[in-house]
Predict the 3D structure of the following.
Amino acid sequence: MDAIPERDWLYLRRVQGQLLEALCARINGEASRIMANHYLKEHEKFLQLYAHVVTQNAVVADCFDD
């Protein structure tokens, strides 16, 4: 894979916090939808929420871990 040009890398570093906030807002929104689903039993909510957090944690790590 080719290296990222320095100016692009510097730009990504500047906006990293904003990008992380936007991603976390999307992830948290989905978690809220899981918790607000009145058709699911509490244990089903827990299982879905746990799976969501595990999956999305991997996404955050892929995007933001150096």
Observations:
- Residues 6-36 form the longest helix (31 residues).
- The two ends are 16 Å apart (CA to CA).
- The mean pLDDT is 94.
- DSSP finds two helices and no strands in the chain.
